Amino acid sequence: MSGIGKGLGTVEVALRWDPSPLGSPAHDLDLLAAVYTASDPAGPPAHWVSFERRSPDGTVFLDRDSRTGQGLGYDEVMKLDLGRMAERHVRVLVGVVLQQGAGRLVFGDVAGTGVRVREDRTELSRHGLAEVADARAATVAEFTRDPSGAWRFQPVLRGYDLDPDAFLATMGADGAS
């Protein structure tokens, strides 16, 4: 936490996966975030961030992007500066999508998946995607602003059998606070 009762400040959501087997098409997983307003916290999002994008106010951005899962540690890292978000923004969902360029793939087809959520060096959550092995997209973290204005984290893992565009249009409707 940022301080006693002050809620979260800047958080990081990181995604890892093992490269596909030698000779197979690369597995490409992507982090994305959807930001919702107080007037419509269940969607559609006020704005969203995915590969090669950042939020209009610069509070959400992809710090590291991978198309193969090669490398050490976490392959994609998204930063969310919750403390700088406009008051009208009250909910942020972070999801993972599995690009379908090499045919229909689900998370169970990808080895070594993992998601970590942390603020500074404090780990808030760490899990894999085995629970949503049959999904092509998943919501992996939810941040909500409470009535005092403090941001809170709710661990969440919901899988969807949707392509990236359909997932983005649907992800906020489930579990709205």
What does this structure look like?
- The mean pLDDT is 87.
- The two termini are 21 Å apart.
- The protein is mostly beta strands.
- The strands form 2 sheets. A 5-stranded antiparallel beta sheet has the order 4-5-1-7-8, with no helix packed on it. A 5-stranded antiparallel beta sheet has the order 3-2-6-9-10.
- Helices cover 4% and strands 40% of the residues.
Fold topology:
Elements: E1 10-16, E2 29-37, E3 47-49, E4 60-64, E5 76-81, E6 89-98, E7 114-119, E8 122-127, E9 137-145, E10 151-160, H1 164-170
Antiparallel strand pairs: 1-5, 1-7, 2-3, 2-6, 4-5, 6-9, 7-8, 9-10
Write down the overall geometry. globular
Termini distance? 21 Å
Largest sheet, order of strands side by side? 4-5-1-7-8
- Total strands: 10
Q: Helix tally?
A: 1
Nearest-integer average pLDDT? 87
Strand content: 35-45%
Integer-rounded radius of gyration: 16 Å
Question: Could you give a short account of the major beta sheet?
Answer: 5 strands, antiparallel
Oligomer classification: single chain
Helix coverage percent: under 10%
SSE sequence, one letter per element: EEEEEEEEEEH
Helix/strand class: mainly beta
Q: Low-confidence stretches at least 5 residues in length (pLDDT < 50)?
A: none
